[in-house]
């Protein structure tokens, strides 16, 4: 019967431990690489002609499932929503400003181009990375106010962006039930801010 010497046991155990850790790290890296995610990078509310607009930047990553859906001709719609909320200690909070941006990302196999559609406007891209970069930039989006927004007053801002599952074809909606591969959203980011003052109009000639 072969006996393992104590002098051999510790180096062998160390090698096995290191190998297990490496495999775990490789597995985590592979899993992370295949995950879809949306991260809010920055947001800015700015005054313009007696009203307010916002700019936002995101980092959007698609997984293989979503990329494959694009290649099969499925349009992926993304919705970005921003709310201005007036917090009231004596009553329920009131939403006084709202903006909603809906954009469609599609792929055309004949031209091998990706298309980003915003309302009646569309733009073509030669690669998915370029299309996602454009999708990640929201600029000059008006905030519709239900009442007059007061400069320098404090409001709660709520911002989120997500994949609109309801806009997918019915068979794909069934597939998304309980599937994390289709669960793509930033979650809601909330913070308090004071609206910037409106810029004074220069009427001098």
Automatic annotation (TrEMBL):
Keyword vocabulary terms for this entry: Signal
Cleavable signal peptide: 1-31
Superkingdom to which the source organism belongs: Bacteria
Name of the protein in question: Possible proline rich signal peptide protein
Lineage: Bacteria, Pseudomonadati, Pseudomonadota, Betaproteobacteria, Nitrosomonadales
């Amino acid at each position: 019967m072969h006996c393992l010497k104590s002098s051999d046991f510790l180096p062998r155990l160390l090698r096995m431990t290191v190998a297990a850790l490496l495999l775990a790290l490789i597995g985590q890296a592979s899993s992370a690489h295949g995950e879809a995610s949306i991260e809010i990078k920055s947001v800015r509310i700015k005054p313009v002609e007696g009203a307010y607009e916002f700019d936002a930047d995101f980092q959007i990553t698609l997984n293989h499932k979503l990329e494959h859906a694009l290649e099969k001709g499925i349009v992926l719609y993304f919705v970005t929503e921003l709310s201005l909320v007036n917090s009231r200690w004596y009553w329920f909070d009131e939403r006084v400003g709202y903006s909603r941006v809906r954009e469609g990302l599609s792929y055309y196999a004949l031209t091998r181009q990706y298309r980003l559609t915003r309302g009646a406007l569309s733009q073509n891209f030669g690669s998915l990375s370029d299309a996602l970069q454009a999708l990640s930039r929201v600029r000059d989006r008006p905030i519709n106010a239900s009442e007059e927004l007061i400069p320098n007053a404090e409001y709660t801002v709520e911002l989120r962006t997500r994949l609109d599952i309801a806009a997918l074809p019915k068979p794909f909606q069934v597939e998304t039930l309980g599937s994390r591969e289709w669960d793509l959203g930033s979650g809601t980011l909330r913070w308090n801010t004071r609206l910037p003052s409106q810029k004074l109009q220069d009427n001098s000639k």
